[in-house]
Amino acid sequence: MWGADAVNRFDGIFAFAVWDSIERTLFLARDHLGVKPLLYAERDGLIVFGSELKAVAAHPAVGDDLDGTALSDYLSL
Predict the structure, then answer these.
(1) Tally of domains within the chain
(2) What is the CA radius of gyration of the chain?
């Protein structure tokens, strides 16, 4: 009904994912202030996401290797 614009109607902290199996689309959203974390990694067409870094890093496709540039960008923001 509202689609992606639904997040503009939400108050509070949130992070969620919606998979549309008919359209084969994934929608990830988090609160406007970024209070609730939503982390993700993409490897070879696979998307892994979670609310904690250790959850994402625990997936075998992601692992715990670090991209120095990405880490620098993350810490600078």
Answers:
(1) 1
(2) 14
- Contact, 56 vs 62, CB < 8 A? yes
Can you give the pLDDT at residue 50?
A: 92
73: which 2 tokens?
Answer: 């960008």
Q: What are phi and psi of 62, to 5 degrees?
A: -100, -55
Q: Using CA of residue 32, residue 57, residue 26, residue 14, what is the dihedral sign?
A: negative
| pLDDT tens readout for residues 6-37 | 899 999 999 999 999 999 999 999 998 888 88
Q: Which helix (H) or strand (E) holds 41?
A: strand 39-43
Residue-range definition of the domain harbouring residue 56: 3-76
